[in-house]
C-alpha cells in the first residue's frame, strides 16, 4: 500500500557540472510519497576519458538504491572487461555484482551504514536521499563474501531498486538498464529510447518468471512487484538451481551501445515518476524548449519535476518520487561515415543491443 503525505515535499536536491565534453544537470524531489526512495550518481571523471550517470528507483525501501548509487560505478572500474576497454561487459558484470555484494556480513553492514532507521517492512536500516561524489570511489575492493560475523548468512535485502546507467567515452555511449527507469536520447529533436521498460507482461519476461516458478497477478510479479528486473529483492532470487539471469526476478541488464554523432544533443535518465507523466518525445520537446532559456540544466530538470507533480493524489500519476539527469553533449562528434551509421537509431529502442 502506497502512503502519501497530506501535502507534497517539493524541496529539490539539484546539481550541475561540466567538463570540456559534457555538461549535466540533475534534480530529485520526494513529492507526495511518504519517503524518498530514489538515489542517483553523476561522475564526470570515472576515469580520464569516461563519465558515468545513473538513476536508481527504490521500492520497499531506499537502501538498495543508495547502495547502487555508491558502489555500482566502482564495480564497473574494477572489472577485467573495463581494463580491456569493453564498457558493455563491464557494466553488465557490475549489475550482477550488486546482488552478490549485498549478501553476507559486509553486505549487511554496508546496508546498515547507509541508513538511519529501521524499515518496518524490510527490517533494514535506512536513511535520506544520497548521491556519491568522486572522492567516494576510494573504496577497498575485496571479496565481500569472506567477511565473517553474526550476519554471514544474510541472504540479502528484500527491498530493491531499478538501475539505469549511462557511460560516455568519446563517441561511445553505453546504456544499461534493469527495471522501468529509462534513458532517452535526443537526435536532432527526435526522441529515441535507449532502454526498454522491464514489465511482467512482456513475453520474454513472462516466460522467464513462469519458468522459474513465479506467477503474474494483475501485472505484478508474484502479486507484489510491477516490474520484472531489479537489483535486490532477494526473496525472488532464491532458486539455487538457476543462474542469476533465469531467476523470477533478475538484475541482468539490457545493454545498448551507441556511436554518437553530430545530431545527438542530449540524453535524459529518469525514474518512472517522470515517464508516468510524460512520453519520451514530450520530455525531449520540453527540454529543447527550455534548455537555452534556463540558467542551468538543473533548472530545466526542476521545471520537469514541477510540471509532472500532481495537484492531488486522486489520480496516482505525478505522485511518485521523481529523479532526472540531463546530460548535454558540448562538442560536435565526427560525422557519421555512411548512411548505415546515420540510420542506426530507428524505431523505438533503435540501437544495437548486447545482452
UniProtKB/TrEMBL annotation:
Keywords: Hydrolase, Protein phosphatase. It is an enzyme of class 3 (hydrolase). Signal peptide: none annotated. The keyword Transport does not apply. The keyword Signal does not apply. It comes from the Eukaryota. It holds the Pfam family PP2C. One of its GO terms (molecular function) is protein serine/threonine phosphatase activity. Its EC number is 3.1.3.16. It catalyses: O-phospho-L-seryl-[protein] + H2O = L-seryl-[protein] + phosphate; O-phospho-L-threonyl-[protein] + H2O = L-threonyl-[protein] + phosphate. Residues 23-329 form the PPM-type phosphatase domain. This is protein-serine/threonine phosphatase.
Amino acid at each position: 500500500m502506497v502512503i502519501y503525505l497530506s501535502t507534497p515535499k517539493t524541496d529539490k536536491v539539484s546539481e550541475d557540472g561540466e567538463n570540456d565534453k559534457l555538461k549535466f544537470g540533475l534534480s530529485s524531489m520526494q513529492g507526495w510519497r511518504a519517503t524518498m526512495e530514489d538515489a542517483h550518481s553523476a561522475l564526470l571523471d570515472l576515469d580520464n576519458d569516461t563519465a558515468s550517470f545513473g538513476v536508481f528507483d527504490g521500492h520497499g525501501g531506499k537502501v538498495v538504491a543508495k547502495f547502487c548509487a555508491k558502489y555500482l560505478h566502482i564495480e564497473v572500474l574494477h572489472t577485467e572487461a573495463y581494463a580491456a576497454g569493453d564498457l558493455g561487459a563491464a557494466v553488465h558484470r557490475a549489475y550482477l555484482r550488486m546482488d552478490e555484494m549485498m549478501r553476507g556480513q559486509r553486505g549487511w553492514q554496508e546496508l546498515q551504514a547507509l541508513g538511519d532507521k529501521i524499515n518496518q517492512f524490510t527490517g533494514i536500516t535506512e536513511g535520506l536521499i544520497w548521491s556519491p561524489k568522486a572522492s567516494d570511489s576510494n573504496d577497498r575492493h575485496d571479496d565481500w563474501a569472506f567477511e565473517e560475523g553474526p550476519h554471514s548468512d544474510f541472504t540479502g535485502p528484500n527491498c530493491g531498486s531499478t538501475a539505469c546507467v549511462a557511460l560516455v567515452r568519446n563517441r561511445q555511449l553505453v546504456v544499461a538498464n534493469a527495471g522501468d527507469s529509462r534513458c532517452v536520447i535526443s537526435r536532432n529533436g527526435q526522441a529515441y529510447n535507449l532502454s526498454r521498460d522491464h514489465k511482467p507482461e512482456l513475453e520474454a519476461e513472462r516466460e522467464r518468471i513462469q519458468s522459474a516458478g513465479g506467477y503474474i497477478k494483475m501485472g505484478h510479479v508474484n502479486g507484489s512487484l510491477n516490474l520484472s528486473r531489479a537489483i535486490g529483492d532477494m526473496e525472488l532470487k532464491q532458486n539455487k538451481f538457476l543462474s542469476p539471469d533465469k531467476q523470477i526476478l533478475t538484475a541482468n541488464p539490457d545493454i545498448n551501445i551507441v556511436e554518437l554523432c553530430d545530431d545527438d544533443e542530449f540524453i535524459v535518465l529518469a525514474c518512472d515518476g517522470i515517464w508516468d507523466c510524460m512520453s519520451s518525445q514530450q520530455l525531449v520537446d520540453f527540454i529543447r524548449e527550455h534548455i537555452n532559456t534556463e540558467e542551468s540544466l538543473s533548472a530545466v530538470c526542476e521545471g520537469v519535476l514541477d510540471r509532472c507533480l500532481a495537484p492531488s493524489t486522486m489520480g496516482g500519476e505525478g505522485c511518485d518520487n521523481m529523479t532526472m539527469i540531463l546530460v548535454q553533449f558540448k562538442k560536435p562528434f565526427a560525422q557519421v561515415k555512411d548512411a548505415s551509421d546515420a540510420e542506426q537509431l530507428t524505431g523505438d529502442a533503435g540501437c544495437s543491443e548486447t545482452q
